[in-house]
Design goal:
Thioredoxin-like_sf, Ferredoxin
């Protein structure tokens, strides 16, 4: 059996569309990405066999953004503030429980 390099691999849509079109970057995705990356490292969750937070281009869910997707389960989340990010870290990344209220 091939084991995943990371327990959880999180991809943040950080796409910037032209001419003011709806996109994750216009909804605070960069700040949320930075916050989650720092929080995961600070809590000792980052690294091989643990959690990896990555940038992604367009994930094609612009109207539902900002969005992130967590693999290997392919769970899609939206978020509005750092409290939402904290809840995803604690519930999903630490305890394996999906945060139903933030699902896309």
């Amino acid at each position: 059996m091939n084991q995943s390099h990371f327990q959880y691999h999180v991809f943040f849509c950080l796409n910037q569309r032209e001419k003011g079109e709806d996109c994750c970057m216009n909804r605070g995705a960069e700040a949320a990405f930075d916050y989650m990356k720092k929080s995961v490292k600070k809590q000792g969750l980052a690294g091989t066999g643990k959690v990896r937070i990555n940038r992604a281009g367009c994930l094609d869910r612009c109207a539902e953004g900002p969005v992130m997707v967590i693999y290997p389960q392919a769970v899609w989340y939206t978020f509005v503030d750092n409290e939402d990010i904290d809840e995803i870290i604690e519930s999903h990344l630490q305890n394996g429980k999906v945060v139903e209220r933030l699902l896309v």
